[in-house]
TrEMBL record, chain A:
<dbReference type="GO" id="GO:0005886">
    <property type="term" value="C:plasma membrane"/>
</dbReference>
<feature type="transmembrane region" description="Helical">
    <location>
        <begin position="55"/>
        <end position="74"/>
    </location>
</feature>
<feature type="transmembrane region" description="Helical">
    <location>
        <begin position="260"/>
        <end position="279"/>
    </location>
</feature>
<feature type="transmembrane region" description="Helical">
    <location>
        <begin position="117"/>
        <end position="144"/>
    </location>
</feature>
<feature type="transmembrane region" description="Helical">
    <location>
        <begin position="164"/>
        <end position="189"/>
    </location>
</feature>
<protein>
    <submittedName>
        <fullName>Cytochrome D ubiquinol oxidase subunit II</fullName>
    </submittedName>
</protein>
<feature type="transmembrane region" description="Helical">
    <location>
        <begin position="299"/>
        <end position="327"/>
    </location>
</feature>
<comment type="similarity">
    <text>Belongs to the cytochrome ubiquinol oxidase subunit 2 family.</text>
</comment>
<dbReference type="Pfam" id="PF02322">
    <property type="entry name" value="Cyt_bd_oxida_II"/>
</dbReference>
<keyword id="KW-0472">Membrane</keyword>
<feature type="transmembrane region" description="Helical">
    <location>
        <begin position="80"/>
        <end position="105"/>
    </location>
</feature>
<feature type="transmembrane region" description="Helical">
    <location>
        <begin position="6"/>
        <end position="34"/>
    </location>
</feature>
<feature type="transmembrane region" description="Helical">
    <location>
        <begin position="234"/>
        <end position="253"/>
    </location>
</feature>
<dbReference type="InterPro" id="IPR003317">
    <property type="entry name" value="Cyt-d_oxidase_su2"/>
</dbReference>
<keyword id="KW-1133">Transmembrane helix</keyword>
<keyword id="KW-1003">Cell membrane</keyword>
<feature type="transmembrane region" description="Helical">
    <location>
        <begin position="201"/>
        <end position="222"/>
    </location>
</feature>
Length: 337, 449
């Protein structure tokens, strides 16, 4: 495997990691606010905060990893995406900043504030919506370079069915992933009332997830024929994705093995996300950047991969320790510690 | 409104970094202070010190949150505001940027563990161990990111071919000539600043209320650490000057208003320049600049005249240098005074005048950080990568940059205000004395002297 292929795979894994952990976080924020306005916050907000408190800052780092890594491995992305994304990127930064800091202010500060809760819930849906736009842009047609000046075609972007189908998919996926995780966490905590509630959410958002995926798929065929056909060639990955979705549904419906149900959901998104990504190649930005031409020097690519492996050797044990302390420690989850 | 995108790009980055640097400094230094306090607390079985660690850590989380989000902001802004810089530099210097994220990740994971496991381990020593990765992660982040800044000053590790960087060696780029002195200076000044700000808080509490044992111990610890790192920072500053004299002499010359190359050069502090660029009303230290630059009072120091006009940094950085140095000396003097007074039984190290000076040293230390950083950045002008790319060439061409400036200004005002309000509320509603009693009911009331 060439170093640029390793590079893009590593980055894609990080983005996938962010997709999962951030979805849990974003969705939890929305559910916490929703529970509050429907006066059910006493049922589940304790559960949500027990999970989120120790891990919220870790979530952000997955994302930082991705964009720092992209610019490192494929410096041309800075030129194109950097210029074109100034406005949407800045808005995403501000939303992320509001979300992250308000979480801390609310949680560690002494007073509970409804405004903080609202912003925390609202950003939970707005951030995935705005970040998913970057994936839409990568399909090409929206970022153009004319006479050496890179610009973003806003009107085209906001009137395009594909971009809206992706936004829709991002939001329902967040709610679905988050609800299945919270179902598992509630079961783990042996918290019956919360479990009943979040399981209902998980079942509710499952069908829209599949509808949104299909819609995005069809919209893509209208927008980028090449990518669409490449994805059709990888039909088995999407088949596996649907298969895992069905397993997750069956488990959730029967009300058992919630841990396995969540893992199935993770696999469902893993195969869909990598199928999408593999079909996207060789383009990082259609038609300007490909992984071969846009890649950094070989020595840098090699150094980054070495750093990445060394970093993983440090991080994986730490993450396992973190999970053992807060995720798989039954006493902690139940609120006894 | 027709604004220059380059100017707006610079302003937006100045603002983001000027704000972030406060929280980044806290992120590097405070974990060390927490770790030291907890270690003493565990070793001496002294609840005061462990309470110190607990309370510092609780405040620290709030600043970490702001640090994380502003750090994410600057990380993305590098690509959004300086796309051409990142495209070129990404090829050579992305390795430490990448590793910085790893270091931060490491720090974040262990900070989460540290904060939520105060009473979870049988041995308190185990909990203290968790603080070490936080200290190390914070330090490594600072080191990696400083190598990037060092690279911008003395770029190495590549050759130029057809206007692009070729034959890239990421390791040489990381360990460029500016790296050692810069890393040393950044680390020591971050530690001294955090010790000074915590000392300022203790001094403030003692000025407002009667001095309790808790605050006295806090003051002793923080001022001692201030003294140690103020001394080390002085050494680091000296090494930085010597580095500049050798590798980046236009920066030193501009900062010192040293126009003509000469032997036995005087050090000029403050003052201003008249029409003939002659310093007026300055403090003049004979031959000291030569000593500062080359450890020899009669050595030759390169003057600004040897550089073409268009690559000379702005002359106002002179004041940044002077203010930074003056504050550094002030920190060293005040902490030394405290230590001397506390060693002699007859003297009272908690007298009001000294407490006021210690209180002032906290905010001043942060000002010194800002001044030093402005000196480092402005002193590199007009370059973004010295000798290869100017700031003007690197900036975004997007016309929306002006609008983004106001958007971010609003964000930082909100964040700064809420952070301050939250911190005040957190500690005011829960004084240390009450919390100590609650957690350790057996503790003796320490209000004797």
């Amino acid at each position: 495997m060439s170093y640029e292929m390793i590079g893009i795979t590593v980055l894609w894994i990080f983005l996938y990691g962010y997709l999962i952990v951030a979805s849990v976080d974003f969705g939890a924020g929305f559910y916490a606010y929703y529970a509050k306005i429907t006066k059910k916050d006493h049922v589940m907000n304790q559960l949500i905060s027990r999970y989120l408190s120790p891990v919220w800052e870790v979530t952000n780092v997955f994302f930082v990893f991705f964009f720092v890594g992209v610019v490192g491995f494929f410096p041309d992305t800075a030129h194109y995406y950097g210029t074109a994304l100034l406005v949407p990127g800045s808005i995403a930064i501000i939303l992320l900043a509001i979300r992250g800091s308000f979480y801390a202010f609310e949680n560690y500060g002494s007073k509970k504030s409804n405004v903080y809760m609202f912003l925390y819930g609202a950003t939970g849906l707005l951030i995935p919506a705005s970040l998913s736009m970057a994936l839409t842009l990568s399909e090409g047609g929206f970022i153009v370079e004319e006479n050496g000046v890179v610009s973003l075609k806003y009107f085209k972007l906001f009137t395009n069915p594909y971009s809206w189908s992706v936004v829709f998919l991002a939001i329902v996926s967040v709610l679905f992933i988050s609800a299945t995780f919270l179902t598992f966490y509630a079961a783990r905590a042996n918290d019956r009332p919360a479990l009943t509630l979040v399981r209902k959410y998980a079942l509710f958002w499952s069908v829209p997830t599949i509808i949104a995926s299909l819609t995005a798929f069809i919209a893509l065929s209208q927008h980028n024929q090449r990518h669409y056909e490449a994805m059709l060639d990888l039909w088995w990955m999407f088949g596996l994705s649907v298969g895992f979705f069905l397993i997750a549904m069956a488990l959730l419906y029967q009300g058992k093995h919630y841990g396995l149900a969540f893992i199935s959901v993770m696999f469902q998104f893993f195969f869909a996300f990598f199928g999408y990504g593999a079909g996207h190649l060789p383009y990082i930005l259609d038609p300007y950047i490909t992984i071969t031409e846009g890649a950094t020097h070989q020595s840098m690519g090699f150094a980054l991969i070495v750093a990445f492996i060394a970093g993983l050797c440090l991080l994986i044990p730490s993450l396992i320790l973190l999970m053992r302390l807060f995720l798989f420690d039954a006493d902690y989850v139940k609120g006894k510690r | 409104m027709n604004v220059d995108p380059v100017l707006m790009s610079r302003l937006i980055t100045t603002m983001t970094l000027g704000f972030h640097i406060i929280f980044a400094t806290l992120g590097v230094g405070i974990p060390l202070m927490i770790s030291i306090a907890e270690f003493i607390g565990v070793k001496k079985k002294d609840p005061h010190y462990r309470m110190l660690a607990r309370r510092w850590a609780r405040g620290f989380v709030i600043t970490v949150a702001v640090g994380v989000v502003t750090g994410t902001a600057i990380g993305l802004q590098l690509s959004l505001v300086w796309p051409e810089f990142m495209q070129v530099a990404g090829n050579v210097i992305s390795l430490p940027l990448f590793m910085e994220v790893f270091a931060f990740f490491f720090e974040a994971i262990f900070l989460g563990m540290y904060l939520y496991t105060w009473d979870r381990f049988k041995k308190p020593f185990t909990h203290w161990l968790l603080s070490l990765p936080v200290v190390i992660g914070g330090g490594l982040s600072a080191i990696f990111i400083t190598t990037v800044n060092a690279f911008m000053n003395t770029p190495e590790g590549f050759t130029m071919a057809n206007g692009a960087f070729a034959a890239v060696n990421p390791i040489t780029a990381m360990f460029n000539p500016a790296t050692p002195s810069k890393v040393f200076h950044v680390l020591t000044s971050a530690y001294v600043t955090c010790a000074a700000i915590l000392a300022a808080i203790s001094a403030f509490m003692m000025l407002r209320k009667k001095a309790s044992d808790y605050h006295k111990k806090a003051l002793k610890l923080t001022v001692t650490v201030t003294f140690i790192f103020a001394s080390l920072t002085a050494i680091a500053g000296d090494l930085s000057a010597k580095f500049l004299a050798e590798h980046q002499s236009e920066k030193l010359a501009a900062a010192e208003w040293h126009f003509e190359t000469e032997k036995g050069a005087d050090l000029i502090m403050f003052g201003w320049l008249d029409e003939q660029n002659e310093p007026r009303y300055e403090f003049r230290f004979p031959k000291l600049l030569s000593f500062l630059a080359h450890s020899d009072f009669n050595s030759e120091v390169t003057g600004l005249e040897e550089f073409p006009e268009e690559v000379r940094p702005p002359l106002w950085i002179h004041y940044m240098f002077d203010l930074m140095t003056a504050i550094g000396i002030f920190l060293l003097a005040v902490s030394m005074l405290y230590l001397i007074l506390s060693k002699v039984k007859k003297w009272n190290e908690h007298n009001k005048g000294l407490l006021i000076l210690i209180f002032l040293s906290g905010p001043l230390a942060f000002l010194a950080i800002e001044f030093g950083w402005i000196l480092a950045e402005e002193g590199r002008q007009p370059w973004i990568i010295r000798g290869y790319m100017t700031v003007e060439e690197a900036a975004t061409s997007s016309p929306y940059i002006g609008l983004m400036f106001w958007l971010f200004l609003g964000l930082y005002i909100v964040l700064g205000t809420l952070c301050t309000v939250t911190l005040r509320k957190m500690f005011r509603s829960n004084p240390a004395e009450e919390e100590l009693e609650k957690l350790y009911p057996t503790i003796e009331k320490g209000d004797d002297s």
